[in-house]
Amino acid sequence: MPLDKRTTNIIVRLTPKEKSLIEKKAAAAAMTLSDYIRHCVERRTFSTPIPEINRLTYHQLAKVALSLSHAIVLIEAAKISEQNLSSFEEVRRTTVDTLQVVRSVQSQLLGLKSSEELL
Question: Which Pfam families match (predicted)?
Answer without folding.
Answer: NikA-like (PF21983)
